[in-house]
Design goal:
Layout: H1 10-19, H2 25-41, H3 43-52, H4 55-85, H5 93-121, H6 126-151, E1 153-155, H7 156-162, E2 180-182, H8 184-202, H9 251-257, H10 263-266, H11 292-295, H12 298-332, E3 338-341, E4 344-347, H13 359-392, H14 399-416, H15 422-448, H16 453-482, E5 485-486, E6 489-490, H17 500-531
Antiparallel strand pairs: 1-2, 3-4, 5-6
């Protein structure tokens, strides 16, 4: 899981794309969108591969894709820097997006290998069994950010001496010795090597255990009496009342018909004298479904829309938080000489708007905050849903409206926050994003069957890809539209108005997802009472 969340540190090196390579915000957002499509869009293929091939081959393929994707992205960025230094055009942003797409596919395969092995190995207390490991998927961004701050920061003056480009807007004049920025080339290469090595090592330890065998031996099971064959004489005290040709509900047929982990399989096994169950409605007593039957399910369609809204909003903030920080910081700067650097204006001493904290550290803090709060959200939703089920008979889907409300509050905070209160937007975004994904995969396994959970989760992941594409592109287009234009061309946009309409649109999406999730929760509550 730690190797699967590397795309969430995009905000760390996104300013290098806009500041050093000269990409517009829309082009940078497009690169993020293509990477998200690789992470979520190929989910059905990754899920099918994990279900059919197994966890080990899927993990090995993931390692190869991560190594190639980030390796090519690092090489493309280095080539772009050299081209800019020569006065030529940088590497085309679509090529960079293609390289990130390959890394996204590797992340998707790595996640699916771990997810399917957990879902199929742990059939009890799935909230904890899936929530805790999946939480490391969100924590990976914080760990990678700490690594970047500790080992991949370089002095700006050294960078300018190595790649000099007079009269280029991406290179500051008279850089200060104390100013630092991310070594993007080295950091991207590290992401590829680390992802490849971690997934390569996991091949030796990842395995899916066979489910426990349920015996139907009459001597070891007193639920159903042995059945006498036809033509074996008159009835006696040892003769069952129902003969084999009239018995329609045996222990084996009932246990094979219902999904493992449901209420029917974990309590008592119904005997042949029990009345028939009420008609199934695709929930607690559901068999594993996929394909057309899954697509036609009303709750599956609603859950897909929720994925579009919540995942898209979360990805927009995660990928664009650096642009939001630069816009707010630029509007709040006081007087003094400023140096354009990495898409944001710095004071003459290379520090941020408060004169003390470098902008690179502020951006990194937001990335870490989103990651840590996402980790906490996944832990709380996983363990909390388990506790709510045991103590109150609740359902895991009840956590989804809470995540939607939290995400909506993050958008409201972003509309009015200054640079210091913008941390609240990052914290709430990570908490809501992690809280949703902490239960989403388990909901899919419990509502539509664990045997096909990889495929179904893969198809639902298209919602994340579509949502990420819509909201990231919307953010980039709005930011570019708000940029003032001078004689020398478009200038940087500063102030909350630069992204206001993007947050208003995402707030509307959060309201829609909240309504749909509450409807799902009420419907599930009615179904639980129906079967109780």
């Amino acid at each position: 899981m730690l190797a699967s969340g590397s795309l969430y540190v995009f905000a760390l090196y996104a300013p290098s794309f806009t500041g050093r390579l000269g990409y517009s915000q829309t082009q940078t957002s497009t690169i993020a969108v293509i990477g998200d499509i690789g992470l979520y869009g190929v989910g059905p293929l990754s899920g099918l591969m994990a279900d059919r091939l197994g966890a080990r081959p899927t993990s090995f393929i993931a390692g190869v894709l991560l190594l190639m994707g980030y390796g090519l992205l690092s090489a493309g960025y280095a080539t772009g820097l050299e081209n800019v230094a020569k006065g030529e055009a940088p590497t085309h942003f679509l090529w960079m997006g293609g390289f990130l797409f390959m890394a996204g596919m590797g992340s998707s395969a790595s996640y699916m290998a771990a997810f399917t092995s957990l879902a199929k190995n742990f059939r009890n207390a799935r909230g904890a069994a899936l929530g805790i490991p999946v939480s490391f998927f969100g924590l990976s961004a914080a760990i990678l950010t700490f690594i970047a701050q500790a080992f991949f920061m370089m002095n700006v003056s050294d960078f300018v001496n190595n790649i000099s480009s007079n009269n280029k807007p991406t290179t500051p004049k008279n850089p200060q010795e104390g100013a630092e920025e991310l070594d993007t080339v080295g950091f991207l290469l590290f992401l590829g090597v680390a992802g490849g090595v971690i997934n390569g090592l996991s091949v030796f330890g990842m395995n899916i255990l066979a489910p426990p065998t349920i015996t139907t031996d009459p001597e070891s099971n007193t639920t159903i009496a042995p059945v006498q064959a036809q033509g074996q004489g008159p009835l006696s005290e040892q003769t069952p009342l129902l003969r084999e040709n009239t018995t329609t509900d045996t222990l084996a047929s009932r246990q094979g018909d219902y999904t493992l982990g449901t209420q029917a399989a974990t309590t008592t096994v119904p005997s042949v004298s029990d009345p028939p169950l009420k008609p199934r409605d695709g929930r607690r007593y559901v068999r594993s479904i996929s394909g057309k039957e899954f697509f036609m399910d009303g709750d599956a369609q609603a859950f897909f829309v929720i994925m579009v809204c919540l995942a898209g909003t979360g990805l927009m903030i995660i990928n664009s938080i650096s642009a939001m920080v630069d816009a707010v910081a630029g509007a709040e700067q006081g007087s003094g000489p400023r140096i354009p650097l990495l898409g944001a204006e710095f004071r003459g001493d290379g520090s941020g708007e408060d004169g003390k904290t470098p902008m690179a550290s502020i951006r990194a803090t937001h990335v870490v905050l989103i990651s840590l709060s996402s980790y906490a959200g996944r832990i709380m939703s996983g363990l909390g849903s388990d506790l709510a089920i045991v103590t109150h008979g609740a359902h895991r889907v009840y956590a989804v409206p809470i995540a939607a409300i939290c995400m909506g509050l993050a958008q409201v905070a972003g509309l009015f926050a200054n640079l210091h209160w913008l941390y609240l937007t990052s914290a709430l975004t990570g908490l809501a994003y992690g809280g949703f994904f902490g239960v989403a995969g388990t909901v899919v396994a419990e509502l539509w069957g664990e045997e096909t959970c990889g495929q179904n989760w893969g198809w639902l992941s298209w919602g994340s890809a579509i949502g990420g594409m819509l909201f990231n592109l919307l953010f980039g287009l709005i930011m570019d539209a708000e940029r003032p234009v001078a004689d020398e061309g478009p200038q940087a946009c500063y102030g909350r108005h630069c992204y206001r309409w993007a947050l208003i649109a995402s707030l509307g999406a959060c309201v829609l997802s909240c309504v749909l999730s509450i409807r799902m929760a009420l419907r599930q509550r009615a179904l639980d009472q129906y079967y109780r």
